[in-house]
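User: Hi! I'm working on a homework problem where we have to compare a predicted structure to a textbook description. Could you give me the structure for the chain below?
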Amino acid sequence: MDVEKQAFEQGYAEGERIGKQMGEAMVESICRRYEKSLGDLAASHKQMAQTMEEQTVHLALEISRKIVQRELTVDLDLVATLAAVTLKRLASHQSIALRVSRTDFERVRTAIAAVNPAVAVKDDPMLERGDFLIETAQTHLDGRLSTQIDTIGRALLDE
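Assistant: Happy to help. Predicted structure tokens:
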């Protein structure tokens, strides 16, 4: 009977050891899957946050564009003022040409003639209300609303 009891206890201990090993292997496998899931969740969260940030910047830029376009329809002298301020900074330049939209042409031409009559103001059918381009012998300045907002967007999005 001692041999039977000893065999039973030995078998029982062996079964317990194998069961414990299997349990530990299962727990280890579950822990690895859990850690992988947490990593995947963190990566998804980071991607979602980045996407939301980009979408928020794009939305803010579009709202800004609409506000500026609205201001341009309310304050018809705004583009002339912006162009005049820019031209004052270029006073030392030669052969200055200012291109504006057909909509803004007359108003801008009149305003600029008072500031610097040497500036050649030209209407450009490719430009929209509020846009202007300045070309001199030394430089080229893009005052188009879309360019300015795109530049701000690239800076905000670190592009």
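For your comparison, note the following. The mean pLDDT is 91. Residues 83 and 89 are 10 Å apart (CA to CA). Good luck with the assignment!
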